[in-house]
Specification:
Strand content: 25-35%
Radius of gyration: 21 Å
Number of helices: 13
Structural class: alpha+beta
Number of strands: 21
Number of domains: 2
Distance between the termini: 33 Å
Shape: globular
CATH architecture of the largest domain: 2-Layer Sandwich
Helix content: 10-25%
Oligomer: single chain
Length: 420
């Protein structure tokens, strides 16, 4: 079924150019649709901030998405519909006594969309969400159903596919036994302490997020500690004092949408994200940018941003600093490098943010930043391609699976192929 459609993304800063939205009721119907449509892309949860998911026509997988999980006999993997959201998946895994290794800061996003853009959580030993993918099924541009599993030659190129390889319909994910987490927030860590003990700070828990407005000190450190690995820090952290109440990542906002803090133990799915399902995540009225670079460059990169602080602060709601472990996925922002992620939540002033990004990206350029594929950045394919050692292999895979360019769009041509 196709309907006339006019849509905007979750934050309201991007209006889709597509005016027709398809909702196939079966995989067979999806295959036929893909094979006959000149230009098409899958529409996920609309949490991207750019044109990456846009096309002449869009397809929704809502009618093909259930909330059940198929648990493998060895209970080490589960297979799910690609359109399921992480919050829904977490509820299903909870019933099975299982868990994912990590979650992003908000559980509202779809599995397929998060995987395709290398979206991540945090933790020095934790890979991004795509790192959990053990297999996938997708419809290629000729309408054929392709299945791939970890170990296949093309698999590392297929996972973070940027929507350019086909419409993903099913995903197999690594899981582990369910675990509990305690979350505590610490405030006002001096920059000098962070620079001297950066690795110690980001290793203080299973998942650690730092928040800053680039003022005189680091504003907050959110430490998520697995209860099966000890209590984690209590009271203070390298001189930063534990918060006396719950906090929102953006100072001054009601913390009601955030996950439980103050050291109360809770399920992995209720503590690893920053925000709860059922609430508007983050602020909602915002634009996001994010840049990943080698973790061993964290201190000089942060020092460069502090020098730019007077220009950043007027447009900044918060900056989150996280760590991500290396993976082998060709277009992952953490490909073959343990990474630090510098995430910016901006006020919704597109023109002013883009003007600032000119200088911000220039300040980070010596460190080889890889922008998050689903967020706002300026660097084009000529700048980005050298930062991905398997870039040429990925483009060859795109050409082989989609020779007619059904899944290409202007965003892909500008930022990935360089033909715009």
């Amino acid at each position: 079924m196709a309907v006339q459609w006019a849509g905007i993304n979750w934050a309201g800063n991007y209006e889709y150019g597509a005016r027709e939205l398809h909702r196939p009721a079966s995989v067979a119907e999806l295959q036929e649709l893909v094979a006959r449509t000149p230009r098409l892309r899958a529409l996920g949860s609309r949490h991207s901030f750019t044109a990456i998911p846009d096309s002449a026509e869009l397809v929704s997988l809502e009618e093909l998405t259930g909330t059940d999980v198929d648990v493998a006999a060895d209970r080490r993997t589960v297979t799910v519909d690609a359109g399921i959201r992480y919050g829904e998946l977490a509820a299903a895994l909870h019933r099975e006594g299982l868990a994912l290794h990590n979650l992003a800061s908000l559980p509202h996003i779809s599995v397929a969309g998060a995987v395709a853009t290398a979206t991540h959580g945090s933790g020095v030993g934790n890979r991004n969400l795509a790192g959990a993918v053990a297999g996938l099924q997708l419809v290629t541009s000729d309408g054929e159903l392709l299945r791939a599993t970890r170990g296949d030659a093309d698999f590392p190129g297929l996972v973070v596919g940027l929507g350019a390889l086909g419409v993903v319909t099913r995903v197999t994910l690594d899981v582990e036994p369910a675990f509990e987490v305690r979350q505590r927030v610490f405030e006002q860590l001096p920059w000098d302490t962070l620079f001297e003990r950066f690795d110690d700070v980001v290793s203080a828990g299973y998942s650690v997020s730092l928040f800053t407005l680039f003022g005189d000190a680091l504003d907050m450190i959110w430490v998520k500690s697995r209860t099966d690995a000890g209590a984690g820090p209590v009271g203070e952290l390298f001189g930063a004092r534990e918060a006396d109440g719950e906090r929102h990542p953006i100072p001054g906002i009601d913390p009601a949408p955030t996950t439980g803090q103050l050291g109360a133990p809770g399920s992995w799915s209720d503590r690893l994200p920053h925000f709860r399902m059922g609430f508007t995540p983050s602020n909602g009225d915002e634009i996001q940018s994010e840049f990943l670079l080698p973790r061993d460059q964290a201190v000089p990169a942060l020092q460069a941003l502090l020098r730019l602080g007077p220009r950043i602060r007027p447009l900044l709601q918060t900056c989150e600093i996280r760590t991500i472990a290396a993976d082998d996925l060709w277009m992952s922002t953490a490909y073959e490098q343990d990474s630090i992620a510098l995430h910016f939540t901006w006020v919704q002033d597109q023109q002013a943010v883009e003007a600032l990004l000119v200088d911000l990206e220039a300040a980070l350029e010596p460190f080889g930043p890889r922008p998050h594929w689903g967020k706002l950045f300026l660097a084009d394919a000529a700048a980005l391609a050298p930062r991905y050692p398997r870039h040429a292999d990925f483009l060859a895979l795109v050409e082989r699976l989609d020779p007619r360019g059904a899944f290409r769009n202007d965003w892909f041509e500008r930022y990935v192929t360089g033909s715009r």
